Amino acid sequence: MNMKNLSKVSLSILLGLSLAACSGDDGSDGVDGTNGTDAVNGTNGVTTFVARDDVITSNANIAYAAYSDSLISAIALQDAINTFIAAPTDANFSSTKQAWLDAREPYGQTEVYRFREGPIDFVDEAAGTEGPEGSLNAWPLGEALIDYISTTPAVNGSPFQEDGTSALSSNIIADITAYATIDKATIQSLSNKEDDERNVTTGYHAIEFLLWGQDLNTDLSSSQDVRDATAGQRPVTDFNTSGACTSGEGSAQADEICTRRGQYLQVATEILIDDLTTVVEAWEPVTGDHYKTFVAGGDTSLALILEGMGRLSFGELAGERINVALTTDSQEDEHSCFSDNTHRDIYLNAKGVQNSFNATYTRINGEKIEGASIYDLLLTEGFPELANKLRASLEATMSAASVIDTKAESGTPFDVLIQEGIDQENVIAVIDALVVQTDDIEEAIEALEITTNDLRQDTEEQISE
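The structure assignment produced for this chain is given below.
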């Protein structure tokens, strides 16, 4: 089944790449009457003509490529998980965690395609259906519903789990009576249990929790102390089915518990692939229903591109994903809190916005897709200063996000950078840059005379403006 999915994606993406290469005039006739003039770059680097439909088609082709890479990476993750469950060694455990980290790379760059009522996050109230974004990427995650958690409180007396309980046996994996079979139906039926949005049972972060376990770095009592910089420390024995099963170090369990934990990991990954496949098929060039509607959408689609860029920049990324964790000093509110991969989430989300502006995307195999961009369009329509201003603000955001990324890779992860009592200026710099780029996106919307929804509606955070 995996090879079939992979072959389908590989074949269809070739079509998408050819479309991306062919979007707009190739310049063979030369819009200024000179053969060989490039339609995007024009003469001497000055854009001569880019149509709005070219920009829209480029954006659609890149969306398809990014989601396809996400699916391909998820299939690779599934293969790693299956290998690990069959042979739960330290080496296979490390390889599986790396496969999860690799799978996040393309997906993080797709977040800019949200806020557009597209395949990822549409809501059909009449039909009672919605896109799979919540199933794929919901957080924070109330981990006590899925598996065991620590019963040791933090220094300030608050338990690590959100609801204040100490769950050891009532979770899905441990409660064999209540949840006799771990399958798709069981896991999906418990999502948002009791209308609590923290009850996340599927998606990247459920898989992340099963691989890393809780990150139990506490807020230390002295402001001179700094959190431990390690991620979650789930032992490999949590997946041992040969007489050495545990639920954490020193907590021996029957082999059945580790078998069920492995089953959950596999089923959650199957659901991840199902959800991504649905999105990829909708974006598939020529045949995808959403693709066809989007590329024919004119200014409505152009507005959606810019709205997605702005809403991700301000409310979702600057507000919910960074400022909430910063102002509360809460590692529970960081995006990838189990693996300490939040620095990559921030960088990749910002990169997705920049990709949409520049109409570029580098695939997981290193191949680069390029097309007609919003930058080109602003030049074509007579706004060169704004084009350069927005390009510069996006680059400033990437520079600030790169600092967070580099510090994390050097041993100072996001949950340390947000800690009270230390210098938080690097995190604040990313927020400030995202606010500026949102201002500039709004200017571009006004200049192009298109209509969007409020770019700042997705957070209640008081962000400096």
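Interim note for the steering committee: The mean pLDDT is 86. Residues 331 and 337 are 6 Å apart (CA to CA).
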